[in-house]
Amino acid sequence: MKKILVVDDEEILRMLIVDTLEDLDFIIHEAPDGLAALEQLQKENYDLMILDYMMPSMTGIEVLTHIPSAVREKMKVLMLTAKTQEKDKQEMLKAGTDFFMAKPFSPLDLMSVVEEILQ
């Protein structure tokens, strides 16, 4: 069974993502910030991390720069972001983002993208 880590400082958004994906037979864990995500990544291996770009103490980009390459090679990253300028996308790609999804997003679109990524 595929494992997903959802990292977002907004609890309501994490709940929406979990509710959207829980019927798809994934194991889903949550982290409220970048530091908690890095701690979780030391304990578990994930197939996908759904990562918020803008979080208070550590941005999604900063989280990506702290993930060991051995962990990163086995995991896809879907960045959720309101930053959609080309320069922002380039920064995310350079940091190791595999996929982007603009906020706000449709739960059905999220479900489709996640299924496509994890096939």
How would you explain this protein's 3D organization?
- Keywords: Phosphoprotein.
- The modification 4-aspartylphosphate is found at residue 52.
- It holds the Pfam family Response_reg.
- Residues 3-118 form the Response regulatory domain.
- With 119 residues, the chain is an alpha/beta fold.
- It has 6 helices and 5 strands.
- Helix 5 links the parallel strand 4 and strand 5.
- Helix 1 (11-21) packs across helix 6 (107-118).
- The termini are close together.
How are the strands ordered across the major sheet? 2-1-3-4-5
> Largest sheet, described in full?
5 strands, parallel
Mean pLDDT: 94
Tally the structural domains: 1
- Total number of strands: 5
- Please tell me the CATH architecture by its name: 3-Layer(aba) Sandwich
Number of helical stretches of at least 4 residues: 6
In CATH, the topology is named Rossmann fold
Q: What is the helical fraction, as a range of percent?
A: 40-55%
- Give the C-level CATH assignment: Alpha Beta
Beta-strand content estimate: 15-25%
Low-pLDDT residue intervals, each spanning 5 or more residues: none
CATH homologous superfamily descriptor: Response regulator
Report, as a whole number of angstroms, the end-to-end distance: 12 Å
| Rg value | 13 Å
Following the backbone from N to C, one meets helices and strands in this order, namely: EHEHEHHEHEH
